[in-house]
Amino acid sequence: MPEPLPLDTSHRWIHGSRSRRHRTDPDHQVEQLAAGTVLVRQSKDLTYEAPFVLLLLGRERALLVDTGAVPGAGLRAVVDEQVDAWTRSEELGGIDLVVAHSHSHGDHVAGDAAFADRPRTTVVAHDAASVHAFFGLTAPDASAAPAAPDAPDAPDASLTDASPTPDASAPFDLGGRVVDVLAIPGHHAASVAFHDRATGLLHTGDTVYPGRLYVEDPDAMAASLDRLVAFAEEHGVRHVLGCHVEMTSRPGRDYPLGARYQPDEPSPFLGVEQLRRVRDGWAAHAGRPGTHRLDDVVLCVGNGVNVAAPLLARAAVERVRDAWRQLT
Length: 328
Ligand SMILES: [Zn+2]
Description:
The chain has helices at about 75-90, 105-110, 130-135, 155-160, 220-235, 270-285, 305-325; strands at about 30-35, 35-40, 50-55, 60-65, 95-100, 120-125, 170-175, 180-185, 190-195, 200-205, 210-215, 240, 270, 290-295, 300.
């Protein structure tokens, strides 16, 4: 295994303006983490979600993970500029673009329409079956009889069975750069992780990031956290990156839901040790409904009133504080 390219994780990220009447943030912060590895953050002045969007560039195609929380052409312009700069610097005639998603919640797909008419571009559909089929995460149906070798019309089981499989992972080749794609349902049925072999970066979407980890399917989440840790250990993952930052730099303390100004954010990057702690914390709480505070994340299990009520109460207080900031 060649040494991964070093990744620059030292950037200070935009985190909202104290008052949106005097904005200090650009709409998008665009940083090169390594050659052909671009991380973009959307401003909290545009959307409180302030998601991170990852662009990985290869010699034949680029992979965009998510289109952010804002409709419109802003992110498209950023991506076009980065792809052009890459093809020029690498002296490539031009490359394809695959627009995929960590999962299909609205703050990850809102910019899709701006890519629909882009030349040489495929926008992968959002549902789990389409995502699994596109990346080849569909295990052949074991119960299907093997097709006779002289029966060319026999359906290919790997194309027809699009159900998620527990150990599914598949390589996706960008040309001189391979990304492993893993099915990690739990936060969402269509959640997938992306592992960039070139840099040792594991992108975990909204499944693991320094913030509130909302869980739709606790059993699937437990299995996915185990899979992520096993994968990270086996493949020598160097950095874990999700799509948001909601924690403060105080262990176990998050910003309120909907916060538009987060001056005390930690880095969006986690290490494998922190990923292990999330997995162990999950196991310790056995996926019980409720809010469980760990140092690096807050586990939000279930949609019950004991999860939603405190979140919404803090969000309401934050809205008043935010309104006050706009006046001062
Ligand atoms: Zn999200």
